[in-house]
Amino acid sequence: MRKSRAMVLLPALCLLAAFAAHLPAQEWEDDWDFQMVDLYARGDQTFAISLGLIFPTVFAGPGVDPQFYGRFGLRRVGGSGSLAYTHFLGAHAFVGAEIGVKFCGTVGGNTLFIIPIGIRAGWQFIFRRFEFPVSVAAGIAPQRHMEDSHAGFFLRGGFSAFYRFSPEWSFGLNTDWSWYPQRPRVDGRRAPQYDVHGNIMGLTVSARYHF
Predict the structure, then answer these.
(1) Model confidence, pTM
(2) pLDDT per residue as tens, the chain (211 positions)
(3) From CA 198, how far away is CA 60, in angstroms rounded?
């Protein structure tokens, strides 16, 4: 009788031990956001799409036309959209590339278009499921207004806050400040009297796909 009880209890205890050993592993797998050190590794990548608003702020320089730039020319609010690729160098540092479009109407009923194309680098702070990338981007920015076009340099600093909804997706809010200097040439020569330094603030929402 004792032998038969032992034969029944022994498999039951083995199953209970196996279940107890598996339970923490399953909880750890579900709570993947607690694995802070290994959340990102070298070679991890993201692809993001962003949409939002831009706010023309300070336009300065000898070439500023008060009838076009600043609060007298550009509308107070414009639109923005971009696509961005990011490659992680480690748990926090990253590099990437981006392309976007910004547009803003003028009081004359026309539209200024800017297409920034650049590379960027930054550092991402992580707290549980919240991620806070800080980045700097630079590149070229073709611009067009009516019949006038210009391809110049741009520099942008940005800060974002993302929530890691799942291992594959995160959603967040971005804010940035962009500098667009215009240094036109007339008859093939630099014309500093027409230089303009435009500053635009952006506010966008993003969806990131992690792979």
Answers:
(1) 0.74
(2) 444 444 444 444 444 444 444 444 344 345 554 454 467 889 999 999 999 999 988 877 776 765 554 443 566 789 999 999 999 999 899 999 999 999 988 777 788 899 999 999 999 999 989 999 999 999 999 988 777 778 889 999 999 999 999 999 999 999 999 999 887 777 778 777 777 788 999 999 999 999 9
(3) 7
Place of tokens 């290994």: 38
Produce one character per residue of 115-150: b if its CB has 16 or more CB atoms within 10 Å, e if not. bbebebebebebeebebebebebebebebebeeeeb
Of the candidates 120, 114, 121, the one whose C-alpha atom is nearest the C-alpha of residue 141 is 114
**Nearest-10 Cα torsion for 61, 66, 70, 76:** -160
For 195, the 3-state DSSP assignment is coil
> What one-character DSSP code corresponds to residue 2?
H
Among 175, 173, 172, which Cα is nearest to 202's? 175
Which top CATH class is 45-210?
mainly beta
